[in-house]
Design goal:
Uridine Diphospho-n-acetylenolpyruvylglucosamine Reductase, domain 1; Uridine Diphospho-n-acetylenolpyruvylglucosamine Reductase, domain 2; globular; 24% helix; Uridine Diphospho-n-acetylenolpyruvylglucosamine Reductase, domain 3; alpha+beta
Length: 296
């Protein structure tokens, strides 16, 4: 793929992805594009060959890139697509590359309430939209009014929240489109109260989750009426390791990279956990983490 003079961003080839993922694992991307801004990204996508596989990367959480890497093009929105502004008294425009924690604080500073839970999500707004990310009882799509999408031909469309089928950690109706931005609808509140709420949520998160370790966030979805962490811990799997990957002693729904893990180690540990929980409880744990790329 040749760089075009109209692109303002950076195109990298055979770029190792481990340094971009929160698990610190993953093979290379055949191509990686770091756009200058939203308009540049749309221009870049419109010039791609038909059928070019596209992958999106924000903070690299909730993502397992396999050791063989990714064939196609990875769009890296980290520190890009970062515009955030007040639309009217109760609506906020947020581009896909903005970290969720920044959204929470921005809304709180404006005296808008409803987005505080985003402080507990270790990814970007784009990733939160894709999977209906949640934390502390809040869910992304409960505060979404409209979204802006781009398709593989570089065409930009606005869609209403009602056009998507949204469920727990699931969003259907994307159909070859990706999120560029969202308009969030919030309620007027008290800035100080929201900031205190965020502080309390982060204190709870730091007390219960291994936030200082290389993890992807929660690995498994909670099954109906139960918690994945409880089931994993009940199987005696806290501290269980495969290679350099280990089930966190602090929270059983987190897998830590001890420093030398491969993606294969992590994936083998995920499958071992699923087998053990299925055997003991008859429950099929579904992964929350998105697995992409080729095995080595």
């Amino acid at each position: 793929m040749m760089a075009s003079a109209v692109w303002k961003g950076t195109l990298l080839n055979d770029e190792p992805l481990a340094k971009y993922t929160s698990w610190r694992v993953g093979g290379p991307a055949q191509h990686m594009y770091i756009p200058e801004n939203k308009a540049d990204l749309v221009d870049f996508i419109s010039g791609l060959p038909e059928g070019e596989p596209l992958y999106w990367l924000g903070l690299g959480s909730n993502l397992l890139v396999r050791d063989g890497g990714i064939k196609g093009t990875v769009i890296n929105t980290r520190n890009r697509l970062k515009e955030m502004r007040l639309v009217d008294s109760e609506r906020v425009y947020v581009e896909a590359g903005v970290p969720c924690a920044h959204v929470a604080r921005f809304c709180a500073d404006l005296g808008l309430t409803g987005a505080e839970f985003l402080a507990g999500i270790p990814g970007t707004m784009g990733g939160a939209l894709k999977m209906n990310a949640g934390a502390f009882g809040g869910e992304t799509w409960r505060i979404v009014d409209r979204v802006e999408m781009v398709n593989a031909r570089g065409q930009v469309v606005e869609r209403d929240q009602a056009e998507f089928e949204v469920a727990y950690r699931s969003v259907k109706g994307l159909d070859g489109e990706w999120f560029l931005s969202a308009q969030l609808k919030l309620a007027k509140g008290n800035s100080e109260a929201s900031q205190q709420h965020i502080k309390a949520l982060l204190e709870k998160r730091n007390a219960t989750q291994p936030t200082n370790k290389p993890t992807c966030g929660s690995v498994f979805k909670n099954p109906p009426g139960d918690f994945a962490a409880r089931l994993i811990e009940a199987c005696g799997l806290k501290g269980f390791a495969v290679g350099g990957a280990v089930v966190s002693e602090k929270h059983a729904n987190f897998i830590e990279n001890q420093g030398n893990a491969s993606s294969a180690d992590i994936e083998a540990l995920i499958e071992h956990i699923q087998t053990q929980v299925q055997s003991k409880f008859g429950i099929s744990l579904q992964t929350e983490v998105c697995r992409v790329g080729d095995k080595a």
